[in-house]
Design a protein that fits this description.
Shape: globular
Distance between the termini: 20 Å
Number of strands: 10
Strand content: 15-25%
Structural class: alpha/beta
Mean pLDDT: 92
Order of helices and strands: EEEHEHEHEHEHEHEHHEH
Radius of gyration: 17 Å
Number of helices: 9
Largest sheet: 8 strands, parallel
Low-confidence stretches: none
Oligomer: single chain
Strand order of the largest sheet: 8-7-6-5-4-3-10-9
């Protein structure tokens, strides 16, 4: 449960928090957007002060029905942000939320440490070979179709089994390329109904059969606010409840908008059994 981020060893035996930084104009949670470098740096500073181990930087909104963004536009959003974060917070561990190998390559060259791919390598056939060359930790997430079409009637015979099968098949491909640090993400909210999401959470300890660290991204998502008939802005309390369940199910990284509250959940969880 240790990952190597360019020589920095991160021990995941104690769960860690990944703070979300969106340099997009259309992310689903409005307060999570950082459309300029100044707001990005302020948000990053708060995330780090609140206890984030990782900062996850995204330049392409992957919410259902999100607009297509060109590679050039995604790079124009990401690379200046990586440069700024490196300059102001040189010790911060930067994750790049992208499904494009070119963005992954240039981001790591600019100083990023982790690639977080919502497509699990399905939307860019060069992604796995690029990760093999870069030898950086890789978040392998389950998703069907594309962000534009993934929520059009997603169907499974057994969502837990099918997600697990997908992830483990992709893991084998990565291991053939000598990728050492693989983190699994069940893909909550991606090509899944409300019921699918909670079935996955209920059996999450089965994902990867305990052989890989699990990243969970449920922060303020529709699986929270649609169930409760509230808004994303009103969903912090329910998100924290899901974070505690995820920790009890074995989550090692929580990807969140609200770092302080997630870190508090981890501290409480760590006291259990002591």
């Amino acid at each position: 449960m240790t990952i190597n981020c360019k020589g920095t060893l991160v021990d995941l035996s104690t769960p860690k928090v990944m703070g979300i930084l969106n340099v997009t104009p259309d992310s689903f949670y409005q307060k999570g957007r950082t459309p300029d470098i100044d707001s990005l740096l302020k948000k990053a500073e708060k995330h780090l002060a609140d206890g984030a181990t990782f900062l996850d930087l995204g330049g392409y909104s992957t919410q259902p029905g999100a607009k297509e963004v060109s590679v050039e536009e995604e790079l124009d959003r990401i690379i200046p942000a990586v440069d700024a974060l490196q300059n102001y917070f040189p010790d911060a561990l930067l994750s790049i939320d992208t499904f494009r190998s070119q963005v992954a390559q240039k981001s790591v060259e600019a100083g990023a440490h982790i690639i977080n791919d919502v497509s699990g390598g399905t939307l860019d056939e060069q992604m796995f070979s690029t990760i093999g060359q870069l030898q950086v930790p890789y978040v392998l997430m389950h998703m069907k179709a594309t962000p534009q079409t993934m929520q059009i009637n997603p169907q499974y015979e057994d969502v837990v089994t099918e997600v697990n099968q997908f992830l483990l098949e992709r893991v084998q491909q990565l291991q053939m390329l000598k990728v050492k640090d693989i983190i699994l993400d069940p893909g909550f909210g991606f090509a899944k109904t409300l019921e699918h999401n909670y079935q996955l959470l209920d059996k999450m300890e089965l994902i990867g059969f305990g052989d890989f660290p699990i990243l969970v991204g449920v922060s303020r998502k529709s699986m929270v606010y649609k169930l409760l008939n509230i808004t994303a802005e009103e969903s912090l309390n329910a998100t924290t409840a899901l974070h505690m369940i995820a920790l009890q199910k074995g989550a090692k990284i929580l990807r969140v908008h609200d770092v302080k509250e997630a870190q508090q959940a981890i501290v409480i969880h760590q006291m259990l059994g002591k």
